[in-house]
Amino acid sequence: MENSSRPPAPLPHPAEDVLDHVGYRLKRAHAALRSAMDQALREHDLTVPQYACLEVLAARPGLSNAELARATFVTRQSMNVLLRGLQEAGLLTRPASVETGRARPTTLTDEGRRRLNAAQGVVYAIEARMIQAIPDERLTELLEDLDRIVRALTD
Predict the structure, then answer these.
(1) Residue 93 DSSP SS3
(2) Strand 107-108 and strand 92-93: pairing?
(3) Do the beta carbons of residue 93 and residue 106 sit within 8 Å?
(4) CA dihedral 121, 79, 87, 68 (to 10 degrees)
(5) What is the pLDDT of residues 39-93, one digit of tens each?
(6) Per its record, what are the GO molecular function terms (predicted)?
(7) Model confidence pTM above 0.90
(8) Exposed, middle or buried by CB within 10 Å (0-12, 13-18, 19+), for 106?
(9) Which pLDDT belongs to residue 98?
(10) Is the Cβ–Cβ distance between 114 and 81 less than 8 Å?
(11) Using 50, 70 and 90 to split pLDDT, how confident is the model at 121?
(12) Residue 152: CB partners within 8 Å, gap ≥ 6?
C-alpha cells in the first residue's frame, strides 16, 4: 500500500504541471512525428518500422535481424515479423540459411529500393517541416542537446 503521507518528489525543473515537463514534451514531439509519418507512409503501403528498416538497410546492407532491431528501435521478435513481411512483399532478400552462425544478412531488392526512394520524399518533407520550425542558428544546438539527453539516459 502506498504511503500517502510521503511528501511529493521534487520537480526536476520549474513546471506549471506535467505538460510542461521535458519528458512530456519530447513524447508529444515524438507522437506528432509518428502521426505525420504514419499518414504519409500509408500512400506507399509502408509502416514507420518498415520504412525505418528499409532506410537502415539501404545505408548498411547485410545487417542481421538483431542489428536491424537495435537500429530501428524494435524488439528482435518484432523485427523478425517485420522482415518476413517485407520479404514476402518482395522488398528485401535474406538467405534461407548461412554457412556459419545464425545471422542471415538482409539486403534490399530492386523493388525495395524503388519503394524506399518513393517514400523518402514524403518522409524528408516531414523532416524539413520540423527543421523549418527551428531557427538555423539553433539546429546544431538542438541536435547536440538531444544527443546529450540520450547519453544521460544510457550511460
Answers:
(1) strand
(2) antiparallel
(3) yes
(4) 60
(5) 999 999 999 999 999 999 999 988 888 899 999 999 999 999 999 999 999 999 9
(6) DNA binding; DNA-binding transcription factor activity
(7) no
(8) buried
(9) 61
(10) no
(11) very high
(12) none
Topology at the third CATH level for domain 21-154: Arc Repressor Mutant, subunit A (1.10.10)
**By the 8 A CB rule, do 128 and 36 touch?**
no
Integer angstrom CA distances of residue 76 from 84, 91, 131: 12, 19, 31
* Distance separating alpha carbons of residues 99 and 84, to the nearest angstrom: 20
Q: How would DSSP label each residue in 101-153?
A: SS----EE-HHHHHHHHHHHHHHHHHHHHHHHTS-HHHHHHHHHHHHHHHHHH
Q: How many helices (H) and strands (E) does the chain have?
A: 6, 2
Q: Burial, 17: exposed, middle or buried (Cβ in 10 Å; 0-12, 13-18, 19+)?
A: exposed
Q: What is the DSSP letter of 61?
A: T
